[in-house]
Amino acid sequence: MIFQLVRSLHTGPVCRAAESSLLAKLRKKTGYTIANCKKALEMHNNDTDKAEAWLNEQAQAMGWAKATKLAGRTALQGLVAVKFDKNHGALVELNCETDFVAKNDKFHKMIEDATLACFKFAHTHMQSKGPVTKMELDSEQLGNLASEGGKKLSEILALFIGSVGENAVLRRAECWKANSNDVKIAGYTHPAPTVAGDYSAGKYGALLAYKQANDHEDIGKQLCQHIVGCAPRKIGDKAADKPAKNTDDETCLIFQEYLLDPSYTVEEILNQNKVEVIDYVRFSCGESVEANMPGVEKQPLDTVQTMQ
Asked: Would I find Protein biosynthesis among this entry's keywords (predicted)?
């Protein structure tokens, strides 16, 4: 009789409702399947903290295994993201196999975490050197940076790969720091976001370091738009370079027709607005990359690892 009473208390509607509530909360918090969340709760006597920790351990192990298995598969889709303020900037590329995955909310969160980590790196670990300090990070170095939660980006990436079932690569990043108040940094990605801000992601992106007189309207964003749209290969020097005979073939920034008003050259726009371009970098998602990017400092891996 007593045994039946105790059993009824543990299997009654109130208890089942409580267990169902725990299951729903764990599912919502972690994003794992209902079956896995139920198994985790059963294994840990409905202790949600222990259940969540177990789920993460299992997912991490499965993610690393799947990441290793899929590592050789081509990943040329994805996004380029930028984050910047007046004196710092970060440009990051994250690749995947299909455009479908690139539109996934988890993919967007992954590249945002990576961009924030690079932006923080630019703020805290870059020494002043010239007008702008620039650092290029490769895939391995990028993976060794820590996210806001303290996890390495490579660990977050493995979890992501395990959840979507296709290869993804933290491909490259640029971290910039302006070393004087008269040097500004601007950034832009295309397609442009509906609401402008200091962070955005798209298929193309650019960072720009420049000087501009304070008595003129800032055109840093517009110049970034031009760089993204027209893909100049260098700034250009009037003394050493000559304009291309066909304007469509022009690769020097200063000689190109200005994207926002082709009746002017970029050089004319710079002069009108008292702008000096110091440097820029442009990413196109999935493009082939030169082995060494001119003007960008490539640091040894241990430099990045010791700066967490």
From this structure: yes
